[in-house]
Amino acid sequence: MDKPTPKGDVFQANRERAAPLLKKLRADGIGHMIDGKIVASISGETFETRSPVDNATLASVARGNAEDIDRAATAAALAFKPWRDMGPAMRRKLLHRVADAIEDNAEDIAVLECIDTGQAYRFMAKAAIRAAENFRFFADKCAEARDGLNTPSDEHWNVSTRVPIGPVGVITPWNTPFMLSTWKIAPALAAGCTVVHKPAEWSPVTADLLAKLAKQAGIPDGVLNTVHGFGEEAGKALTEHPAIKAIGFVGESATGSAIMKQGAPTLKRVHFELGGKNPVIVFDDADLDRALDAVVFMIYSLNGERCTSSSRLLVQASIAEKFVEKLTARVKALKVGHPLDPATEIGPLIHERHLAKVCSYFDVARQDGAVIAAGGKAHDGPGGGHYVQPTLVTGAHSKMRVAQEEVFGPFLTVLPFRDETEAVEIANDIRYGLTGYVWTNDMGRGMRVADALEAGMIWLNSENVRHLPTPFGGMKASGIGRDGGDYSFDFYMETKHVSLARGTHKIQKLGI
Ligand code: NAD
């Protein structure tokens, strides 16, 4: 039997894998992918992307503006008809080839994502595989994307069908950027849309890789274009471009509002996956060991930079003291370290500005009169990058900023509650409504609470486990629209009604 690889060896192997990739990245820089070609910005401008591990420059990146977006949108518009009219069998084959290419490069993608975003290898090791699954899932749905309904009436045969809306813009954030962009791009391509992707300026590396892998896999030129740059420049221009028919956006709620305004003159269809401040509710009759595992996982994995993280722990007062004691011990034992080290549970945060934002909440907590039970400081980690101690805040109540605002870091606020009514009240006392997690062994109560929670996705006795056919999205300030399964096609396609008369109905005769 093979001996398992010691963890230290995996760390070393990861560093050895990353070194030549980073050398090449530094030498080549990152350009836009427009119409199947890697190009510089028309202006010649660039910006630097840095690693959160040590703030070292990773690459010089083309800084796109409205001119580059126009080039990409024009390419996407020209490529649209042939892509739309390609048979679904061929589209399916091509999307599976993209999935193959992602799988073949999964290890490179994982280490690059770690170095570019600071996410720990233990989570990123599977990110590329999940991205490939996104492509395979939607590849297999190419044929049914056009499906509609047959709704006959007495005098007419009524059918509906769906057609791709046209070239679309996809704008993505920097947390788990590779997996997340495939989640938006794969259904758009499967629907028959062409895409202009504007990745986050803090994490351009794997978006560049995705564009190149798609090209290698045979996706025709102009079908998937990637323009790098800043939100207010390239992103804004994409949302305003008349050739772009819809914007699939993942990011902050405030950016969603801005995009809605920017897209209004061209009547853009929008789909928003926005922020969250999600509750996990633990009742005293729950399996408390499993609940504790899930509570820790759902806020401290992925550096807490996760829209679906449960950043508010609502725990029943009768068990709060004991539960929080165990939780505090677990938080203090979390391993903060280099993202390529497989032992690391929390890596450096994406950017110094984000680190400053997360750290600012330590003072906010204290000023509000809450207690920092664990963490509460920046962390001196390997490379000297943007590390922070995983933090737990107790002694808080629902009106405090630490209970209301999305910190988007390894930062958990505990809010005790008396009974079911108060739990639901606190859970819903928030502008967001993305996910909710409920732990109880009373299934009647579980279902009542699930029904009462104002959130798009609820898990009972479980952490967030994604199943691709299910609807993904939020209520309130957490989003508009749903992704996943057939829901994705409703966004990327127009539903078209066709009515055929049986020739028997009476037509009013005017002007006789
Ligand atoms: P962000 O809104 O700052 O940026 C997201 C993207 O929007 C980036 O590519 C950025 O360049 C672009 N952008 C910024 N301003 C723009 C503008 N005016 N017009 C067009 N594009 C613009 O978000 P972020 O800080 O990168 O990501 C973190 C946020 O994303 C958090 O709020 C998190 O909850 C959210 N998020 C939500 C989900 C979800 O599924 N609901 C998933 C992941 C992340």
Give the SSE layout.
Layout: H1 7-28, E1 32-34, E2 37-39, E3 46-50, E4 57-62, H2 66-85, H3 88-104, H4 106-117, H5 121-124, H6 127-139, E5 156-164, E6 168-171, H7 177-191, E7 195-198, H8 205-216, E8 224-226, H9 231-240, E9 246-250, H10 253-263, E10 269-273, E11 279-282, H11 288-300, E12 312-316, H12 317-333, H13 352-368, E13 371-374, E14 391-394, H14 401-404, E15 411-417, H15 420-428, E16 432-433, E17 435-439, H16 443-452, E18 457-460, E19 475-476, E20 479-480, H17 485-492, E21 493-501
Parallel strand pairs: 6-7, 6-9, 7-8, 9-10, 11-12, 11-17, 12-15, 14-15, 17-18
Antiparallel strand pairs: 1-2, 3-4, 5-21, 10-20, 13-14, 16-19
Bound molecules: nicotinamide-adenine-dinucleotide.
Note down, in words, how this protein is organized:
- With about 500 residues, the protein is an alpha/beta fold.
- The protein folds into 2 domains: about 10-275 and about 480-495, Aldehyde Dehydrogenase, Chain A, domain 1, CATH 3.40.605; about 280-460, 3-Layer(aba) Sandwich (Aldehyde Dehydrogenase, Chain A, domain 2).
- Helix content is about 40%, strand content about 20%.
- It has 17 helices and 21 strands.
- The strands form 6 sheets. It has a 7-stranded mixed β-sheet, sandwiched between helices. Strands 8-7-6-9-10-20 form a 6-stranded mixed β-sheet, sandwiched between helices.
- α14 links the parallel β14 (about 390-395) and β15 (about 410-415).
- The protein is globular, with a radius of gyration of 24 Å.
- The termini are far apart.
- Bound molecules: nicotinamide-adenine-dinucleotide.
- The site of nicotinamide-adenine-dinucleotide has 33 residues, from α9 and α10.
- Nicotinamide-adenine-dinucleotide binds near residues 198, 230, 236, 255 and 406.
